[in-house]
Amino acid sequence: MPPPPKFLCGVVVSAGRMMKAVKVRSVKQVYDKFLRKHYTAYQSHLVSDPNSSLRTGDVVRIAARPPASKHIRHVVTEIVAPWGPPAEERPPIPTLEELDAQYRAKRDAKAARKSARLKASVADVKAERTKDKGHSLKERHTNVIGGPEVGGGEERVVLEKGMADQ
Questions:
Q1: What is the pLDDT of residue 165?
Q2: CB 7 within 8 Å of CB 24
Q3: Which residue, of 7, 45, 129, 151, has the fewest CB within 10 Å?
Q4: pLDDT in tens, 128-150
């Protein structure tokens, strides 16, 4: 079982420019040893928004999840304070359990496609082998007995054991 997700709160600073993704800015306090002062530092996260329900200015809670892409490593868990239309009028935000179920269904479908593709390629290889066999003895090459200088040269077919007996 994966560890529980780490939750952060932040403000949506960019929404609607990327498909199913928003930029969220979170605030934290950092201490500077030289100045002996705390100051505010901002950290931006690209966050997965599966239903495109967030607007710029929303205060949201996000959770760290397995990467959805190269840069998206968080997902929206809830809208704390909506900006603009109320949260009830927007598309619903899926829960972490729903996202996990979608992820597992997607991975299972991919595994099924991969196993079907491998079975088909193995069947193709077997079909090629049986097509080449023909019968248990396969003609590999012919030897010429005599040769042109001896007088015509009759051909003798040399049969070797094929793959059918194995």
A1: 46
A2: no
A3: 151
A4: 777 766 544 444 444 555 555 55
Q: How many CB atoms lie within 10 A of CB 63?
A: 17
Q: How far apart are CA 110 and CA 117, in angstroms?
A: 11
DSSP states of the chain: -PPPPPEEEEEEEEEEEETTEEEEEEEEEEEETTTTEEEEEEEEEEEE-TT----TT-EEEEEE-S-SSSS--EEEEEEEE-SSS-GGGSPPPPPHHHHHHHHHHHHHHHHHHHHHHHHHHHHHHHHHHHHHHSSSEEEEEEEEES-HHHHS-EEEEEEEE-GGG-
% of the chain with per-residue pLDDT over 70 = 75
